[in-house]
Task: structure prediction
Amino acid sequence: MFSRLVNMDRRYVFILVALAVIIPMLFSVSLPVSISEPTQNLYDYIENLPKGSTIMLAFDYGPSSLAELNPMARALLIQCFRKGVNVVALTLYADGTTLASTLIKEVAEEMNAIDGEDYVFLGFRPGATQVILGMGTEIAGVFETDLSGKPLSEIPMMKDIVNYDQIDLLVDLASSATPDAWIIYANVQYNLKIGAGVTGVMISQMFPYLQTGQLVGLMSGILGAAEYENLVGMPAKGMQWINVESFVHLLVVLLVVIGNIAYFAHRSREET
Amino acid sequence: MDLIGIWVAAFLTLCIYSFLYRDNPLYRFAEHLFVGISVGYGIVLSIHQGFLPLAWKPFWEAITFKDPSGLWVIIPIAFGLLFFARLSPKHTWLIRYPIAVLIGYGSGIAIPNVLRANIFEQTRGTLQPFGKMTETIAANGDTIPALSTFEIFGAILMVIGVICTLTYFFFSVEHRGPIKGLSKVGIAFLMIGFGSAFGNTVMGRVALLIQRVDFLMFDWIASFGTIFNSIF
Result:
């Protein structure tokens, strides 16, 4: 039996994982989600900003990471629009332009936010370091217009926003090392407060920045998205998916345990 | 139009997942299509959002005397064009100039900031809790409470982890005796770090699968109903 388990076709594992995803999704299982401190800190930071403050939202991800980062972006935008915090959005990722633009318009419509008054989407500029450093001097020097081609000087929300001095927080939603770049250049050079929402792969890299206060808060993968949706009080995809995720994690743990038992039992039988 | 988009996305998703059974032409088609579209999209967007507004527009306005102040962009444009000298074996040496500028600029900008963000700040963050072991009074008169026993334990563990992990990467002395012991503890800390990173990676990858299955179940399969209703 153990030798059969050890030599089992890996495609059976794929089928089990698929079932672990599909079945809980069909039955809409709901498990409790507790809020972690880094997510709570980010939420509180924005929640404590006075009405009319401005946050910069960097959509530094492409379609391959939207599963984890789009729910975070949606929850953040809802919080900002509801609180009356202005949003200056941009992306350092060419792939992120359409994704961000679609999502912002969708949420803005839902929350009755107005383009140019409550939010601005600057679009994409190549050269991450130069973009980050350039905006420290003058945002309009890097982005002369918003994505639709309207000069920043003609956008009411941007009237008093020149550089990072008028930005209360930058939140980087990232699937690669861009939070490091924002911290290294915008935080160190211009003292800009930074928060982040990152994919699961990057969570461990970000934790050292939390203990030093270089990040005011952090949303970690799909769990962070679910937590933030919970805090905002509008459970959506993040909450749905984290419930499904828990079942897959249970399966993975079970498979690791069974795999180890089978491996050691098979090896001891071979030795005897 | 949405319906066509949903079906194209569903077809390509199934093509990619067909690799789980075995490698096949449908998977390779979807993979090549993805790479091609990503590169093409990136190039077009870089031209429209980067080259045209930052280089071409000021250059054109300068040579047509609309705004002569934009003439300075000729210098970076000329330096950028030197990258193409790589294509001519006779002029390859010219590429050294833009590379020299890039490396010089990049290092000059990065080194002081990276040192501050990743070395000085991290050292401060590791040692700072030791200044909060007892109740202190801040400059503004506020009382800063002492760390809890658990937080003190965490701070000590952090310092032990940092010292042992750095010892593991210290190759100037032979790893024998106490150094060997410290580096072994360092390996344990590294393994815990890798385990945590792996666990988070699993969470991230499973999230991608869940999003695709969600799309197939609730967008694609739901579109069958729309098609059925429009036909009958």
Strands of chain B lie at 136-137, 143-144. The mean pLDDT of chain B is 90.
